[in-house]
Structure formats: C-alpha cells, structure tokens
C-alpha cells in the first residue's frame, strides 16, 4: 500500500498552464521530496494527489487504482500543512481524535491510537492542552499525530517546517525521518530547502516551471545533474 502513479498529469488555472504533462511513479514506502523554487507547482501537484485540486488532464493511480476523480477522503492519504490547521478550541487529544471520531471509530480504539501516536511524538504530557499553549514544534507534532492515527497509505507534507526556527527545524527533520523509518509508509515531502531535500530524501524530484527536471537519489543528482538548473539547485559543480 502506498504507491502513486502520475500519468501525463496537467493543471491549468483558468487559461494558465502550471503543471505540464508530468509522469512520476512513487514507490510504496519511499520518502520522495519535491523540491524547486517558489511558484513552480509543487503544492499544486501535492494537492492534486490529495484530491484537493482536480486534474486538468491525465490520471493519478493510488495502489494501482484510478483515483483521478476520487474524493479526498477515499484516497487513504493524509496531508500535513505548514499552517498546522489545528482546532484552537479543542485539546490536543481531541485534535488528534477528530478524524477518528468523524469516522465513528470505537472510543477505546481511539484512545489506544492517541496514546501510541502521542508517545511516538513526545506529546504524552500535552494531551490536555490547547494548541495555543504549545510551541510551534509541538503544534506541528500534533498535526502529524492527527495524520498518523488515520494510518494513511501515504503522508503528504507541504513545507511542514517553514514556520519553525532553524534549530527546531533540524530536530523536526530528524523526527520526521525517524517516523518514516518506524512507520515504513510512503511520504511525499514538499520543500524549497535544498538541505532538507538532500538529508531526508530517498529520491528527489527537482521541479522547475511546472515540469520535473530530474528525479533521482540525492547522490545521483549531486554527481550526475542532468542540466545546469539541477546542478545549481542541488549545489554541485557542473
Ligand atoms: P509552489 O508550491 O511550488 O510554490 P504552487 O503550486 O503554489 O507553487 O503554484 C504554482 C503556480 O500556480 C503559481 O504560479 C501560482 O500562482 C499558481 N496558482 C496556485 N494556486 C492557484 C489558484 N488557486 N488559482 C490560480 N493560480 C494558482
Ligand atoms: Mg507551495
């Protein structure tokens, strides 16, 4: 579970084409990073995979099934936003429980999942607090916790660390990598930060103006960049 295949996917906003025909296969369990300058279409493509934007043409398969027109809730994916999107009036516990309650999961099962996610994310002592009583890093963990309890077949992160200060960002980077190791679930991680891309990714897709210039492991991109743009972006000499 967790493979995603994009075939000749495009996106227009009104008459403007922001994703050019794009093919990409994301393997089950891999950590793939979408990297590229601001405005190149990373978030748009992630939102299309999540089902939050429709596709203008082409198709999106999830686990071998055509999901192009599937509503977001049916896709089995969980999106983690940079803005956390937590409910300010609810406790951490209830924020994490929210998607499970909505899905009518049994209370005992919900409790068990919350405990497990909280211990994984060092949130056990904060379950009764409100988001306003947490640090930025803790809030980001709650948002990740809310995704974990749904046991998605893939996590979609859109610049999740860009609101955090530099030292916290390094910690959270390690925590998310650790989480990927322990869950072994597909993760798609959007960033414009080359260091995040190079340190976290199994593979990196380098975006530029609505196309993917190159996809490969950090080492491949570093050693064999396909063109000057990739070389410049990844920071290797060419
Ligand atoms: P990135 O995440 O790489 O910074 P985006 O995917 O947000 O880039 O945006 C890609 C392009 O699509 C940009 O030119 C942006 O202005 C445009 N765009 C994004 N969302 C919309 C929208 N809802 N309506 C019109 N244009 C949009
Ligand atoms: Mg973006």
From TrEMBL:
Keyword Secreted included in the entry's annotation: no
GO-annotated cellular components: ATP-binding cassette (ABC) transporter complex, substrate-binding subunit-containing; maltose transport complex
Domain ABC transporter: 4-234
An MF annotation (GO) of this entry: ATP binding
Keyword annotations from UniProtKB, A to Z: ATP-binding, Nucleotide-binding, Sugar transport, Transport
Protein name as it appears in the record: sn-glycerol-3-phosphate ABC transporter ATP-binding protein UgpC
Organism: Alteromonas profundi
Residues of the full protein shown: 1 to 238 of 343
